[in-house]
Amino acid sequence: MLFVLYLIVGFLLSFAKCTTIKGKLDLPFVNISNFSISRTYFSLYQIGNYSTNEPYYKKTGLQDSDGNFEFSNLPINSGINETTHFVLYSTSLDFNLKPNRILIEFKELENGTITSKAFKNFFGREYFPSNDIIHPEHLEAIEMEPYITISEVNMAPYRSYFQVRNVGILQSGPLASILNSRWKSAAVLSVILLAIFPFLVEKFDPETTKAMKQEALAKKRKNISILHR
Ligand SMILES: *[C@@H]1O[C@H](CO)[C@@H](O)[C@H](O)[C@H]1NC(C)=O
Ligand SMILES: *[C@@H]1O[C@H](CO)[C@@H](O)[C@H](O)[C@H]1NC(C)=O
Ligand SMILES: *[C@@H]1O[C@H](CO)[C@@H](O)[C@H](O)[C@H]1NC(C)=O
Ligand SMILES: *[C@@H]1O[C@H](CO)[C@@H](O)[C@H](O)[C@H]1NC(C)=O
Ligand SMILES: *[C@@H]1O[C@H](CO)[C@@H](O)[C@H](O)[C@H]1NC(C)=O
Ligand SMILES: *[C@@H]1O[C@H](CO)[C@@H](O)[C@H](O)[C@H]1NC(C)=O
Asked: How far is the CA of 209 from the centre of ligand 6 (A)?
C-alpha cells in the first residue's frame, strides 16, 4: 500500500518537475537590487503544436534577489513521442542578457516520462530544429537542471537612455562618425590628397611640372618622328 502511494507521489512529483521551467539570473559581480528585479522580465511563448485553446504565453519577473524565476504547470501535448516547444525570452532594462532566446523542448517517451531539453539561439537568428525545416539550424544544447542560467553579456556597458541634444556637427552625425574613426579619417584624407596632389605639385613646384610636361611632349614628338620615318 505504502509502495503504491510512494509510486503515485513519485510519479506526480516527476510529472510536476518536468513541466516546470526553472531559471536563474546569474550575475557574479552585481548585487541584484529591488530596482533591477522590477525591470527584468522573462517571457515564455509556446510555439508549434498546442493542445489547449490558445498557445501558452506568460511573462514573469524575478522571484528574489538570488535571481530565481520559474514557469510552472506548462501545458504539454500528450501522446507517445509528442513534443511541445517553448521559446524563452529574457529582457532587462539594466542588463544585456544572454542567451536572450532559448528553445525548450518537452517530449513524452513511451514509458510516460517527459524529457526536457534546452537550446540557446545565437543573436539575430530565429531558427530552431523542427521537422518542417529542411536544413534546421544547429543549436547548442544548454543545461536545464537544476535551472537554466541567464547571464549578462560580457563587458556590456550599462545602456544609456538619454542623448545630448544640439551637439555640434563635429560631435554627432556622419561627419563625427568619420572623425571618430581613425580608419575612416585616414581613408577620407587619402582620397582628398590623391585628388589635389597634381594641383599641389603644380603650385609648389612649377619647375618640375614644366619639366615633366616638356618630357612628355618630347616623347610624343619622338613617336611621331618614328612613325614618319
Ligand atoms: C552584495 O551585497 C552584500 C550584502 O549587502 C555584500 O556583502 C556583498 O559584498 C555585495 N557584493 C557585491 C559584488 O557588491
Ligand atoms: C527589497 O524589498 C524587500 C521587500 O520589499 C526588502 O525586504 C529588501 O530589504 C529590499 N532589498 C533591498 C536591497 O533594498
Ligand atoms: C504537429 O502535429 C501534427 C499532427 O499531429 C504533426 O504531423 C506535426 O509534425 C506536428 N508539428 C510539430 C512541429 O511537432
Ligand atoms: C517513438 O520514438 C522512438 C525512437 O525514435 C521509436 O523507436 C518509437 O517507435 C516511436 N514510437 C511511436 C509510437 O511512434
Ligand atoms: C523511461 O525511459 C527512459 C529511456 O527510454 C529512461 O531513461 C527512464 O528512466 C524511463 N522511465 C521510467 C519511469 O521507467
Ligand atoms: C610611344 O609609342 C610607344 C609604342 O610605340 C607607346 O607605348 C607609347 O605610349 C607612345 N608614347 C606616347 C607619348 O604616345
From this structure: 20
31 close to ligand 2 (CB < 6 Angstrom): no
* Model pLDDT for residues 123-135, shown as the tens digit of each residue: 666 556 566 666 6
Q: Is the CB of 154 under 6 A from ligand 4?
A: no
Whether the pTM exceeds 0.70: the reply is no
- 52 pLDDT higher than 50: yes
Cα 171 to Cα 179: distance, rounded to the nearest angstrom:
9
What's the CA-to-centroid distance between 49 and ligand 3, angstroms?
6
| Residue of 118, 23, 143 whose CA lies nearest to 72 | 23
* H/E segment holding residue 18: helix 2-18
Tell me which fold the domain 17-155 belongs to.
Immunoglobulin-like (2.60.40)
Domain(s) labelled CATH 2.60.40 in the chain stretch across 17-155
Distance 14 CA to ligand 3 centre (A): 25
